[in-house]
Structures are given as C-alpha cells and as structure tokens.
C-alpha cells in the first residue's frame, strides 16, 4: 500500500519525523489515510489505535520527533529485580524512549489494562516505571513485551544506578530536611517570644516554659535530622581527619549544651541557633542532591541515544542484527533511514542527511557521503548508509562524552575538599581558642561556671554554617548556571582556575576559523573549457579538506576521471577526457616538470599574502589556472575576541599553519601575538613557557594536535564537535560550538568567585568581630544569635544571585 | 494568661498532626515525581471499558 503523493516530505503519524513521501508507508486506518516512516511506527500506531488510546496522539505536547526503539528484551535480566509479597510481585524498571508526558500516560494505560496488573506508575522525572502484578495471572515477559510493542524499551532498574542516588536516599534526605524545617519554624515562634520577653520583660514561669518547649523542639532537629552529621563527625574524629561535619556537630551541639545549662543557671538560650545550623546545612545537601539527580537523568538520556544493536553485513552480503558489543573494528554495518547510527565509523557506501544535533547542537542535517565520518547516536534521516566501523562500542564519541560527564560529576570532591581543608584548620583553632578562653577566665579568678559558659559561647559563635556553605553552594549554583547554557565544566577546581586566567591561547584552525576552506579566487587561463568543472571532477575523489572544498564548489555534472592518483602532501592527478590533469601545490607541478610562468607565480604570491591557500591546476603539461581558498573566521570570532580583550586578558594565537596565513588571520581578528608553524608538542611547549613566566593559561582548541596543549594549559576548552581525545584532555567542553560562550564562561566564573569571596569575607568578618567579644564575655547572646542566623541567610541568598546572572 | 498554655497545647496537636502527614506523604512517594502531576491533570481520565489485553 505505498504510494507517492505530490509533496516532498510527509510527517510520520507516530514519531513525527519527516520522511520522503516516496519512501513513506501509507495505511488506511478508519477510512483515513495516514503516513508512517517505517513498519515499526505503523505497528505502534495500530496497537495504540486498537486499544482506543488515540488521545495519546491528540494530546501529546513537547514530543521530540524520533523513532521508537524496538530492542529485543531478555526477561532473565529482570528476574533478580523482582520483589514479591505472596500475591503481588513488583519491579522497578528504567524505560528508554520516554519523550514527553503523554508517553507516561500511554505506558501506564497499556500496562494498566493488562489482566493481572495491579498498578503501573511511571515517574516522568526519572523515567522509571514501578509495576505491580499478580504472577499467577500475567507473566512479567508479557508485561515487558507490551511495553516494548509500543516502542519503549524497558531495562533493568540497576543499570543507571551509578549515576542516580537511590529513591530511598532522596526520601530520607527529604524527611530529615522537612522535619528540621518544620521543627525549626515552630522553634522560631517560641524563640521570638523569648526575644520579645528579653526586651520587654516576661514572667519567669512563661520564660521557663518557653525555654523548655524550645529544648523539646530542638532535640529532634539535632538528633534525628542532624543524625547524618553527628555520625559522620564521629567517624571523622575516629579517623583523625576533621571534616566539615565536625564543625556542624560541634557548633550545634555546643549551642544545644550551652542552652540546656542556661535553663538551669538562668539566662538566655539559643536552641534556635543549634537547629538553624542543621537546617541550613540540610538545605544545602538537598539542593545538591536535586541537581545531581537531574544531571544523572540527563546522563541516562544521553546514553540512551546509542542503539544497542547494529545491522552487521555478513560475508555473504546479508545483514543480520547483532548486539553492538559483537561488532569488531573494521566490520561493515548498515544504517537504514530513520535509524540511529550504532557505532562510530566511516561511510563506505550511500548518501544520507544525518542529524548530528545531539553531538553538535547544530540543527541542520549534515550530508554524509562515502568517506565522511559518522558518529554513534546520530540519526540518518533520508538515506541508506553502509559504514565501516572504527573502534568498538566503548570508544564511540557518545560513550566518551558520557564518560566525561560522569567524570565531571564524580569530581565534586575538590569543592568538598576546600570546605574540609578549611574545617581542618578551623576546628582545632576554635577548640584552642575555647580552651584558651576557659583558661583565661579561670586565671582571672572568675566563677568556673562563667569560664565554661564563655568558652562554650566561643564555640557557638564560631558558627560554621556560613563558612561551610560559602564555597560549595556558590560553585554549585555557578556550574549549574553555565551548564544550562551548554558549557560543561568538569569540576569546581577548574571553575576556580578559569577565574584566575591571565592569558588565553587560541588555536587557529577550527577555533578562530571555521576549519573548512572555501573558494575565493578562481583564475582561469583559458587552456581548457569549463575549468572549474574539470577541477571539481578531479578533486571529487580527494580526501583533503582543500580538495573537498574545490569539489563542493561545482554543483553540476561531474566528468569521468580515470587513473586517479592522490600524491600525499602535494595534490592529485587523473585523466579527464584523455588529458592529464594535475591539481596541487607548486611543488607538484615542479616535480612533474610543468613550467610555471612568472606571472602565475606573482599571482599566487598575491593570494598567499591575503592568507589564502593556492591550488595550481595544470592540463596536458601547461598551467591551466589557479584556485585561491581561504579558511575564513567564524562569524562570532570578532565578538569573542573583543569581549575577552575587554575583560583584560592577554590573547595569543598558536597554529601549525604557515606564517603568512597565520599573520593574516591574526591581523584580521586583532591578535598581535602569534606563533606559527608549531607542532603539537611545540604548542604545549609555548604554553609551558607562558606558565613559567607566571601566567595562568587557558587554551582553546579542538583538534587532536591540540590535545597536548590542552592538557598543559591550566584550563583547556574544547568544543562539542572536537575530536574525542581533545574532549578528554580539556577541562571544559562547549557543547554547542559557540565561541562567544568562552566570554560567558569567564563572566560566570569570575562572578562566582567574587561571590565566594564575599561569602567568605562575610563569614570570617562576622567571626572576627564576634569571637573576641565572646572571649571577653561581653557579647550579648541575643545579638550573637541574630547575627548567626543572618550570616547563613546572607550566604545562601548571595549564592543564589548567581542563578539570575 | 492561662489561655497561652492551652493555645500552645492546641498548636502542638496541630503541628504534630501536620508533621505526621508530611511523614506519611514522603513515605508513600508523594514527592517522588515532581514533574508528572502538572501534566497528569490534563489527561481526561475517562474510564474506558477494560480491554482484555492488547494484541501483540
């Protein structure tokens, strides 16, 4: 039932991808003609329709076009995940293919309608389904098959466990934070009354009652909500490595103990401070857990782009479906229109528009022809491709990106390290100071109670929460903010180094320029007709970027080329219509003994002065013409250079290209310091020299030849389209390839660190003023309690400002 | 002024009730998925006659 309507493309009814009208499937359903991209989509549509769930199609929103996946599932993988309580069994599976909220609805309906299924709940945020069923009525295979039939792939729930914190852990945190917040609020009520009573006078029995109530309210906050800190503090003391939790525990417990003592000796209590410390730190953890969960599910979504199976071409030319792990380097695989490319490789046969947006952020499809590299996870929109696989399933660009992101998340440690290092100094210092205070008051012949109280108030006032939150919170908010713009920062320490950068080193090819030359001049000496057609036909076989640019400039009919030869580093040759054609450098023509007229050499020198590459073309032993090409600046280069210069950075260009071209490009974008003709190691050495001179260097580059330099630099920046090795060597990846984001990154990083400095200045300033007063015993408890609470609020509020930046 | 103590007592009862409600809500998974409910309310949850089981 296929037919070819007049229009060029139609939209698949199910997956909404555009397909060429003549390759679309058409089916008549309920008297309506509907088009589909493939049998899979048609099958799903029929299934959904037959279940009268059509409102899925009318209601769905935010659906991103994309083909459903029909991976084979093995129920044995799920067996150990099943838990059972006599009558019902339950399982938690990860669903891939959930694209929009309507998918949640569809899956729930389809599973829920099976006989014997007690409940099916799909979590949109984590893409997990919780299914409960009665095994004597319906089998798990049957349920999973039903999900798979409508184009979603269930996977055992443990697969993504490494990047997600478990639901139980998150619930626990929420319970503790909620409890802490709830009791702290109640506590504030009574504390406010006590404060008011302090100023206005208060009957002593009310005061005592309120103090006792405060005690009762603070206790669960400290010992239930704060239990993780107490336990961790104890562990860290036992392990003799003081961490932040020791400060939290010390601060809150001493405030708590001090207040209890005050109830009996008469005086002001500050249970509120004790509870506040715990509540604020829990808030920080809760925010962090939320962002980690989001990052985790983004990662799962990214990893899902890689199909699990590939169509392997066997020796007899037949294609068989095998798991991607079984495909070896150098084997041939097929990709049919609408499918995702399962592995990285090179096209050997076929033409197709490929959507690479998930890797490059570029929405326009890229035409892939024999010789073009293709990447796993990209999808072929129009054509049939045969691909020679390079590498294996673990070495694809996509899996490298996933690993990079995973690494970035694991590298939270340095930030925590900063806080722990601070704690490592701060805790003993505070303890010493408290001991000194006690000793001083004892020597001054004060009552032992006064001495103890003053010592404890030193501990209380050295409130750690502002200090503890100052750095991690600001870095967390800052990296999340740039992440939303498509900048991936591998760790908080890198974020810090960026703000200290003094020199930015830029690679020329592919960073400042497009990395693809285009023809600017064509000088035809009139030796042969249709000069450019001949050149394009000859260069069509070339793998060199210059050759490809020449070939791309001619859209018309190509002439037949015989005896094509590629002379590495020089050019190409071939026979067209019986005439010998050469295209390449002047050295190629010299080698072939073809004379070059002085006029011709002068013209080529002129072109090179303008930063152009010259291709000499000869026909039957005479120079037929010259082609000038230039690798021009990217559109946003000038803007980026201006913004970096405005922020006072020293700019430098390093390139492996020749001096003339380098000078021309540098002059055009206004960079004065240039080093040309450098090898990859030369680039790294140049950066080492800069660093030896006391500069903090940032390097931006995207090629394999930039990798050593990216590693050598204090910060390496690379792009989403960069080669895998560059991606691994760099600390920052700009995923959507927009140079201007370098400026944005600087802005954010500097802003974050100025906020951290403000936070620390506030936290330390507060301590500097308050601690001496506490030591001398003249600081009013009420003033200190207010200061303590406000210092944490200032830090939290100040850090959140970064989100709006 | 005795009323203050009664009010505190009543407040305690309400507060504790709210806290238990919160505990129950977290434990029963009310906070597990903050994304879907905003879409779920848009579904017409018309109770269709149950279909035996979808054809494979």
Topology:
The complex is a heterodimer of chains A (805) and B (56).
Chain A: E1 9-11, E2 18-20, E3 25-29, E4 32-36, H1 39-50, H2 55-59, E5 83-85, E6 88-96, H3 101-112, E7 117-123, E8 128-133, H4 140-149, E9 153-156, H5 167-200, H6 204-225, H7 227-238, H8 244-265, H9 271-303, E10 309-313, E11 319-323, E12 332-335, E13 345-349, E14 352-355, H10 357-360, E15 366-368, E16 373-374, E17 379-380, E18 385-389, H11 397-410, H12 413-443, H13 448-461, H14 464-484, E19 487-489, H15 492-500, E20 503-507, H16 508-512, E21 518-524, H17 531-539, H18 545-552, E22 562-567, E23 571-576, E24 579-584, H19 586-591, H20 598-609, E25 613-619, E26 622-630, H21 637-646, E27 650-654, H22 659-669, E28 673-675, H23 680-692, E29 697-700, H24 707-712, E30 715-719, H25 724-729, E31 732-734, H26 740-775, H27 781-804
Helix pairs in contact in A: 5-6, 5-9, 6-8, 6-9, 7-8, 8-9, 8-13, 9-11, 9-14, 9-27, 12-13, 12-14, 13-26, 14-26, 14-27, 15-26, 17-18, 21-26, 26-27
Chain B: H1 2-27, H2 37-40
Q: Which blocks of ≥5 consecutive residues of chain A have pLDDT under 50?
A: 1-7, 159-165
Measured by residues with Cβ under 8 Å of the partner chain's Cβ, the largest interface is:
A-B, 38 and 31 residues
The outline of chain A comes out as flat
Distance from first to last alpha carbon of chain B:
74 Å
Low-confidence stretches of chain B: 48-56
Strand % of chain B is: under 5%
Helix content range of chain A: 40-55%
- What Rg of chain B, in angstroms, do the CA atoms define? 22 Å
Sheet of most strands of chain A: 7 strands, mixed
Largest sheet of chain B: none
Give me the count of strands of chain A: 31
